[in-house]
Every structure is written in structure tokens, then in C-alpha cells.
Amino acid sequence: MMIKKYIYIIDGIVLVFLSAIITISIINRRLKKLVDIRTEQIRKNREEISSLYEELYDKEEELQAQLEELRQSEKKLQELNERLKCLFVYSPDAIVQFDKNHIIMDINLAFEKLFGYSPEECIGRNVDDIVTGSEDKEIAEKLTRELFINGNINTEGIRYTKEGKPKYVKIRAILMKVNEEVVGGYGIYTDITESYEYKKSLEYMSYHDILTGVYNRRYFEEKLRSVNKFPVSIIMADLNGLKLVNDTMGYVEGDRLLIRLAVILSKSIGPSGVLARIGGDEFAILLPNTNYNEADKILKRIRDNINKYNQNEAADGIILSVSLGFATADNEKADLEKVLSQADEMMYRYKLLNSSSIRSQTINVLLSALAEKDYITEGHAKRVKDLCMKIGERLGLSEKELSDLALLAEIHDLGKVAIPDSILNKKGPLDEEEWKIMKQHCEKGYRIALSSPDLAHIADLILKHHERWDGSGYPLGLKDEEIPLACRILSVVDAYDAMTSERPYSKAKSKKEALAEIKNCAGKQFDPKVVEAFLALFE
Of 1-10, 93-102, 254-263, 332-341, which range is least confident? Predict the structure, then answer.
């Protein structure tokens, strides 16, 4: 029984043990399955983590690349900012930076230089209050409104410096926007004053006579074509003897007369007329809305003003001699070109009728000017004339020849009215250029004499009065009897009087010394027969 009992106990234990083994086996299988599941999950998680890590690594690399790109962009922006700053600060154009209210935020160096304002004087102020004149304020404000409407402006105008000096500038402005919102802008001023003034100068020269300042022929003809106020009168004025004055006194003196005449004409016609120089010595006056009687009064006023000038202001005895004529168109049916021709014809009729007196008047003025210069010494012409007449009589000249000789003695140096006093009165010998100018007086005197009927017959004698017996004289280099006798006589007497008179460049010689010099030059500078007759006067 005990054995059976033990067998039952052993069987129970075995059964329990087997049950335990089976249970453990089942549990193990379940645990293994669970472990496998967990292991698979861990494997998947590891794969996911590895994938995420790779993705993060890629993202990190991408972020590093973006960061580097940002760094490069920032560097470029800094460089660009520096460039823009340099362009702003050192730009040759004056630049002002302003906010959306047009209040100045900054100015560059060129702005300071152009307008004379420092940054402290500008920042915080409206740009139109800085450089715009009070009379231009409305225009400037209009430009500002245009800028904020269109986004930019490009124009020209006048702006003013701190001292109030006007500057003609090219004006450009642009707006700055951030996210389509205006935050401010830049105003750019380019100084074009010089080119503007040059342009205005060209415009002025295209319509004005440079010498006198009055209008020129082009402007006059344009105004003539556009006249619409009738009646219209035209006055023509011609300066008499201009060529003679130019040839003898020089172009400076001729120009002075033209300028003076322009002043007198302008003063006489008032602001309603158009005065133009249409030729070398011709002026034309267009008088819109002026009838015949009114034009006649203006003509008389011109003559009165010229007479007043000649009486009170004429310099060096050189007077204004002017020929005048006028004509009137009563209505628009008249041909103004014909009216101009009628005024011109009237002027030339006057000139023709008075040509003789005009020439005589001009010659007398020149003779008076010569007398005032009296370049050698008082009484030179009279002394020379007296001695020439005595020699002429001794040589048996006819009355006509004596008359010509007397006139030659008086005016042989007429051409010297055109020689500068600095040369005539120079203390010391003339240099080569001065001597060349001095020798021109023979030809100038010749041209003066030819212009006057009273003197034309001795013009040839005036031209040749400095020729020498041996051919070394001027201007033609004549010799011996190729030289007119009157000139040979004058040559001796003129030299004698020059030697015995005080000169700026030499002291006077005694009569004995002068006569010895004359005798020594016989057959060289002087005609021996004339010298013989001359010396006989002193025996």
C-alpha cells in the first residue's frame, strides 16, 4: 500500500512536473513569440530611427548649405550696401534721400558742394524748402505730387544755393518701396548751368548782333514776316564813312561808332520798336502799330539825339554821320518787303544828295584829329608848307603844281591819324613790328584822299611822299625821277624840320648840323637838285 501510495505520489509529482514543463513550454513559446514581436518592433524602430537620422543628416547638410548661402548673400548685401553708399556719398550728382513725407534723411557731398548746405542744415526739413525759391514753390510741390503718383520724375529747372544763387539743374527722382509700400525716395540734381548758359548764349547769338547787342538780320526778317499790327513803319539807318574810319582810324574806332549809333537808335525808338543791324553799316527799325506821322517824329528824334551826341560826347572829334529813310504800310495788304525797299531807297537818296558834304565833313574831322595829335611839334605843317613853297618857286613850278605842293605839305601825314599814339610818341627807336605799322600811314592817307573829291588829285603824292632818291624808300621803292617832284621837295623839307624840332625820340639839332646832314644825303636819300635849291635858301 505504501508502495502504491508512493507510486501515486510519484505519478502526481511527475504529472505536476510535466504540467509545469508543459506550462513553462507554453509560456516560453508565448514569451519567444512576444520577444520576436518586440525584437521585430525594435528592428523596425531602429530602421525608422536610422532613416530619420539619415533624413536629419540630409536636412542638416541642406541647412548648412542654406546657411552658407545666407552668409554669402549677407556678404553680397554688405558689399552692395557699401557700393551704394559710396555711389551715394561720392556721386558727382547732388543726391538727397527723403522719407515718404518728403523729409530729408541724408544728403551727399555733391549736394553740399552744389547748394552750400551741410547735412545738419538739411536733415529733418522738406527738400522743397531747402533749394526752391519762393516763386517756384508751387511748381516744386506739383513735381512732388507727380513723383508720388508716377513713381519718378525727370525734368529741368532752377534751384537755389544757400546764398540764393540760381543753379539750372536736371532733376530726377525715384521712389523706394518695400512690399509695395512707399517708404521714401531719392532726388538727384545734375548741375547743367554751364551747358544751359551756353545754350542760351547760342540762342542769343542766333538772333543778336554780337558787336552792338541789338537784333540781327535773321531776327528782323522773322519779325517782318510775323507782323500783325498795322499800320507798320520801317526806318533804315546807314552809318556814313564807316569804311574810311576803319581804314584810317582802325576797326576799333569803327566798332565804337557802330555801338554808339546802336545805343542812340535804341534810346530813340523806345521799347515798342525792333532794332536790328542788318549789314556792316546798316540798321533797320521795325515799328508795329506806327503810322507815317509817328514814324516821322521818331526819325526827327533820332536826328536830334545824333546831333546832341556830336555836340557833347563825340570822342577825338570823330562824329556820327548817319543817313536815314523810312516808309509806312497802312494795312495788311501792303507788301512789307516793298516797304523795306522804299525805306532803303529813301535813305540812299538822302545819302546821294548829301554825299559830297558827308565826305568833306569826314575829311575835316580827320584833319582836326591829325592837328590834335600834332605828333611832331606845334606848327610842323605850316613850317613845312612855307619852305616847300619857297623851293617850288625857286624851281619854277606852275601855279597848279605849287597849289598841289602846298596841299601835300599840309596833309601828307593824314594817314597818321590811324597810327597809335604809343608808336607816334614812343621815346626811342621803333621795333620791327612798330615800324611796319608806322609805314602804313602812306597807304592809309592815300585811301583817305581818294574818298574825297577835294583831295583825290593829290592821293598819289601822299602815297609816294616817303620814297627815296636811291630807291630805298617805301611803300613802292621808287627812285630818281620816278618819284613826283612834289614828293622829292617835301622829303627834304620834312627831314629838315624833323631834325631841327624836339621829338619824343631825339633832341633837336642846330640848323648848321641839319643842313650838313641834308647836304650829305644828296644823291642818296634826296634829289641833288632839290637839295641845291633848298640850301640856297639859307645862303
Answer: 1-10
In 3D, which of 485, 459, 458, 483 has the Cα closest to residue 469? 483
Q: What is the pLDDT of residues 220-232, one digit of tens each?
A: 999 999 998 899 9
Cβ-based neighbour number of residue 464 at 10 Å: 23
- Domain co-membership, 474 together with 407: yes
CA atoms of 517 and 502, how far apart (whole Å): 17
Same domain, 214 and 157: no
Q: Is 22 part of a structural domain of the chain? A: no
Compute the residue count for the chain. 539
The candidate with the shortest Cα–Cα distance to 319, out of 410, 385, 244, is 244
Contact 317, 372 (CB under 8 A): yes
Phi first, then psi: give them for residue 91, nearest 5 degrees. Answer: -60, 140
Average pLDDT over residues 140-147: 77
Q: Flag whether 175 is in a domain.
A: yes
List pLDDT tens digits, range 43-57: 888 888 888 878 888
Query: Grid coordinates 564813312 are at which residue?
Result: 241
Phi, psi of 482 (to 5 degrees): -65, -25
Give the residue from 169, 196, 223 where a domain finishes.
196
Q: Pick the last residue of a domain from 353, 380, 397.
A: 353
